[in-house]
Design goal:
This protein has 214 residues and is α/β, with parallel strands linked by helices. The chain contains seven helices and ten strands.
């Protein structure tokens, strides 16, 4: 790492400091899917820190502008992407809505909550893992007549399966930080041991079949 960290490295460090990201290669977490994981990421914790919220809003805005594409609105993926999507919509002065994982079973049966105009929508997600739930939100917006080709997220594990899915659906994704930079920062700050790096890299390459015991 250089003496002048990138925004990605800086954000990874902040996530580790507030324990929004926890690394436990020896005692892995279990995801709802049943997968074993040496990492747990909860970006909702960032909302409790005003300075970190401002950092996230600024970096999301810069990433949005780097697309060089016009957006008529911002849509957050429920639930993690709602608050951060609002932060970005405020900075861009754009309408905001959020997308449920499924239509409501009562009332209007809405899946998209809010009123956004027709045209290109910038989707905001808090965390990208396999990409499945993120793209379900994209499909819901497209089915409602909106154009979606761009997505932002706070953090991504960088799974090959996710990159393949986004490529197939023609969605360009940018994130504030990534798993690769996280491991680099964690190594430099001795948050993980050098002997654990190989296992952490192996998990990212094949998370579905990863075995913490090698």
């Amino acid at each position: 790492m250089s003496d002048f960290p990138t925004a990605s490295e800086d954000f990874a460090r902040k996530l580790l400091q507030i324990k929004a990201i926890r690394l436990q290669p020896q005692t892995p977490f279990t995801w709802a899917s049943g997968w074993k994981s040496p990492i747990y990421c909860d970006n909702r914790l960032t909302l409790s820190y005003p300075e970190l919220r401002a950092f996230i809003a600024l970096n999301l805005e810069q990433l949005a502008l780097s697309f060089h594409a016009p957006f008529n609105s911002v849509a957050g993926v429920a639930t993690g992407g709602i608050a951060h999507g609002v932060l970005l919509a405020e900075r861009l002065n754009l309408p905001f809505a959020y997308v449920r994982s499924a239509p409501k079973s009562h009332g209007t049966g809405s899946q998209i909550e809010g009123q956004i105009p027709p045209g290109p929508v910038l989707v905001v997600e808090d965390l990208i893992s396999t990409g499945k739930s993120s793209l379900e939100a994209v499909h819901a917006l497209r089915s409602a007549g909106h154009s979606v080709q761009h997505m932002l997220a706070l953090f991504s594990y960088g799974f090959d399966m996710a990159e393949h899915r986004f490529s197939e659906d023609q969605v360009q994704v940018k994130t504030i930080s990534s798993y690769a930079d996280l491991i680099q920062v964690a190594t430099a700050e001795n948050s993980i041991q050098s002997t654990e790096i190989e296992g952490l890299q192996a998990w990212r390459s094949n998370p579905e079949n990863w075995n913490p015991n090698g």
